[in-house]
User: Which sequence fits this backbone?
């Protein structure tokens, strides 16, 4: 358990007001209380409007807050456009997946950080998408809200799809992240609960720990490090 | 009837947990939902092996007993509960111990456990509040307040879509969001 205590956990997909019911400061306080070291608050609406808001909080010690956006699109052409429009403005770009075409376009775009809920329609990824995701460094998301909010048939489908995604991710070493995809503070779960849920579809404890701390840290470092110019090019002092 | 000697008993763990809910949850409803969630997630056979048993429970925290080698599964079952009788809830495991006394002392009796504000000067104006976020101006009634966090029931149904989107009935904000600061 020593590793668990020392790790820094991140939840990279949390939605706040004005898209969902909880204010940013509330979510930040709740997440800090749960034992996270940082969260990414993502705008989530049909028009892909970015909300950059100040968080009226007294300074928090040892807690990182990032802004992001979860892009919802129906057409592939629009996805590329939205991604290049928003890339410079936010820390983390997430694509709302589910649709097969969108999943494919997202994993083939190196500017995308995370493909969120690829199993939303109950269909798993395939080997082609997994290879592309590994090549372009797009992390595949395992969204825990599907296991929390759904029951019965739909949850069975999602669990089965997640099992296959996990198998593919292991084989092609695709980065995996676990996010809550929370729409209110009732959807937040503490890191250990997220790990426990992930273990239900076959993740080992180490993989789950990796998906909650190391991989998100890598994504954040990629996007906020000013010395980094592009993939493979860095300013070294 | 003779009880089993301690060496033959199955070893167990005690989980301290806290429960955040939109309204008060009775012990009976919680047990029902826990059993339902366990059956839905691991089935009858699986839940028989978990040995889940709710010991103490008052409206915001409690102790759960379970088999020692099934702690992660029990965590998962408790995490998979999203609502009880239509009220949104969230269960958070505070810690795990081998005895009831250690659980109580280490996790439940520490001052960090948030308490609902016992006596607050309630006047008509203090019950009401308003705040602006982005282009939304929301005014409403403070339903509950714990430390700096509060739940707001909006006066007008104008922002009902936002609430439905999240599946909650209250807006969750903190005192830092309020435009009018109380007693400051």
Assistant:
């Amino acid at each position: 358990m020593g590793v668990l205590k020392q790790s820094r956990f991140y939840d990279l997909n949390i939605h706040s007001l004005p898209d969902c019911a909880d204010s940013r400061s509330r979510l930040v306080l709740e997440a800090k209380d749960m034992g996270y070291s940082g969260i990414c608050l993502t705008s989530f609406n049909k028009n892909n409007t970015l909300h950059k808001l100040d968080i009226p909080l007294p300074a928090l010690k040892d807690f990182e807050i990032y802004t992001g956006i979860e892009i919802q699109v129906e057409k592939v052409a629009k996805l590329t456009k939205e991604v290049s429009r928003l890339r410079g403005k936010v820390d983390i770009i997430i694509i709302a997946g589910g649709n097969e075409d969108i999943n494919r376009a997202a994993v083939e775009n190196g500017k995308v950080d995370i493909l969120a809920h690829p199993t939303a329609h109950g269909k798993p990824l395939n080997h082609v998408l997994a290879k592309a995701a590994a090549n372009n460094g797009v992390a595949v998301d395992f969204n825990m809200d599907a296991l929390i909010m759904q029951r019965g048939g739909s949850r069975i489908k999602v669990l089965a799809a997640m099992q296959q995604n996990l198998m593919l991710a292991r084989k092609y070493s695709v980065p995996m992240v676990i996010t809550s995809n929370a729409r209110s503070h009732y959807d937040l779960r503490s890191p250990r609960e997220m790990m426990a849920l992930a273990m239900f579809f076959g993740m080992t404890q180490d993989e789950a720990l990796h998906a909650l701390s190391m991989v998100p840290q890598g994504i954040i470092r990629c996007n906020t490090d000013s010395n980094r110019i592009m993939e493979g090019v860095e300013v070294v002092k | 009837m003779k009880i089993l000697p301690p060496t033959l008993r199955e070893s167990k763990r005690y989980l301290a947990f806290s429960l955040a809910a939109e309204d008060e949850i009775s012990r009976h409803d919680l047990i029902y939902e826990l059993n339902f969630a366990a059956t839905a997630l691991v089935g009858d056979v699986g839940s028989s092996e978990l040995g889940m048993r709710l010991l103490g429970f008052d409206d915001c925290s409690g102790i759960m007993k379970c088999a020692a080698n099934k702690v992660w599964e029990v965590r998962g079952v408790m995490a998979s509960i999203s609502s009880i009788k239509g009220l949104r809830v969230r269960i958070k495991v505070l810690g795990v111990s081998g005895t009831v006394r250690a659980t109580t002392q280490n996790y439940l009796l520490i001052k960090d456990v948030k308490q609902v504000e016992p006596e607050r000067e309630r006047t008509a104006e203090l019950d009401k509040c308003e705040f602006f976020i982005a282009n939304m101006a929301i005014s409403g009634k403070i339903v509950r307040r714990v430390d700096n966090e509060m739940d707001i029931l909006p006066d007008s149904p104008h922002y009902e879509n936002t609430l439905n989107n999240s599946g909650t009935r209250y807006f969750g904000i903190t005192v830092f969001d309020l435009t009018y600061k109380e007693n400051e």
